[in-house]
Amino acid sequence: MDAQGRGRAGDNNVDPADQWVFDPDTGNYELRLDPGQAAARPSDRTAAGRRAARKRDAEVGDTDTRPLPTQRGRRDESAVDGDGERPAGGRAARRAAAARTATATAAEAGPAGRRKRKPKKSGKKRALHWTAGVVGFVLVAGCGAAYYIYQELDGNISKVDVGVENDAVSDGPVNLLIIGTDSRSGKGNGGYGDVGSVGHADTTILMHISKDRTNATALSIPRDMITDIPNCPTKQKDGSTKTVPGENQVRFNTSLGQEGRDPGCTWRTVEQMTGLKINHFMMADFNAVKELSTAVDGVEVCAAKDLNDPKSHLKLKAGRHTVKGEQALAFVRTRHAIGFGSDLDRIKMQQQFLSSLIRKLKSSAFSSPGKLYDVSQAATKALTVDTGIGTAGKLLDFGNDLKKVDIDKITFATVPVLDNPKDPATVILNKTAADPLFAMVRADHTLAKGKKGKGKKAAPVKKAPPEAVRVDVTNGGGPIGSAQETVDWLQNTKAAKLSTNAGNAPAKLAATRLEYAPNQADQAATLADWMGLPKSALKKSGQNAGDRQPMKLVLGKDFKAPGSPIEAPTETPDGVQNVNADDKNICAK
């Protein structure tokens, strides 16, 4: 039979219908995920054998006991008699045989109520977690479908060959690129904006999951940010490869759709911008929000004021609401009714919605197999992914690898930007805040705030103004010309006019070092903040310095360039907007 058909020979795949096995001990049907289990449970056991079997069953983690769903329309499903053979006759005869077996078993077992049934497992435990969903966030949320339907989901998934095929599961950190397109294709989407849109990168989130799977950081990238798009090889329908030329200083959202660019072009653009290597991508259109929000019976959102946006068609009174379908889509598209009406305000709406969706997926969304099925169908139908996770089986492995992250360890942040002085309709990257943020993520540091300790923190050192920072800079292992480059940067960018190039250091150093006197602590604090120096780089002497005595900054082998942090920060840099997915008190305003 075909690859997705029933009864493939030579492997252990089993028709999902045949995984429901009648248990004469309980009079119920059981879902057997291991094909070998059914044969190990003949109905003519002795009482002692039955008790031993029940004990074994209690220890089997993938055995599910629950009533069989409606059998109407099922094929090749018949009760099994005591000898392991199917009784002759049609369905009526087989049902009668099953009933006789159950009656005989009940009589042998004695009066009803003397033996306790095994407690039913919760909906979450009944299903093997399989993850995928609206623009990928259900991966971390733990969205799943029962194993017995995941093959059916295979045909729902669209995939694009971006020229990179990574393994579904990685031992290191995982970087998942999530793209929401503004394509107007699909039922009911023609009324949104440009009907003929090729589908640009309207919403882009780079989700970094830590190596130990304890935390995740989701970086929202503003669509109107001016950036450089590299050359991009794209696969054509005839199997050939066409390279789309790169462009400099264009809107980020044109990394997809424009000039025939595929998701691999957005992939390469984000890698170039952040320095992070991407493992996989997931892309979805407007229907993802509509269908998945409906599948989970709505997502709770909050408005701090009445919202009325004629562009997105959102109308909400102040307070908490449960939105789904068209209303959910209107919520994540809204920007004119909140804040300054910018794309950055819309990003905050999306982060609120996705945080609430994650909480929903982690809690009540999977209270029944039917709900699991609905959510999984909605998720996979909405997805386009790379070939590395282009099957339900690969997505299963990928999702199981990522589902360990707790909600309170998922942080949304927005890549920091500044108004573009050349074009008020666009923004530019704020490198001062973005570079340490990207370094923090590359170093696998979490943005999630930890629990506060009981001990008192040391009072922060007061920082000196730029004009008071006096420092001699020497090169003790950095690239050639680093001392002068650093002085130029300090004087022209930071207004530290009292910085001086003192040439090469007398000895090479592995690590950059700043030497200062006790009465120069305020100057050292300012310089360390500018340079991104770790505490280990600060060396305080025992005596105060004279009025005109400079500090000494020795650039070590770890120095790369001025403005590039020597060590990745462990705290979220100033000026980076961020929210925690577990924060239920966020309201649009």
UniProtKB/TrEMBL annotation:
NCBIfam families linked to this entry? lytR_cpsA_psr (TIGR00350)
* Biased composition, class Basic and acidic residues, residue ranges: 55-65, 73-88
Which keywords fit this entry according to its UniProt record? Answer: Membrane, Transmembrane, Transmembrane helix
Task: Provide ranges: composition bias, Basic residues.
Answer: 113-126
Species: Streptomyces lydicamycinicus
What this protein is called in its record is Putative LytR family transcriptional regulator
- Low complexity bias: start-end ranges: 89-112
Region (Disordered) location: 1-126, 558-589
Highest taxon in the source lineage: Bacteria
State the family named in the UniProt similarity comment for this chain: Belongs to the LytR/CpsA/Psr (LCP) family.
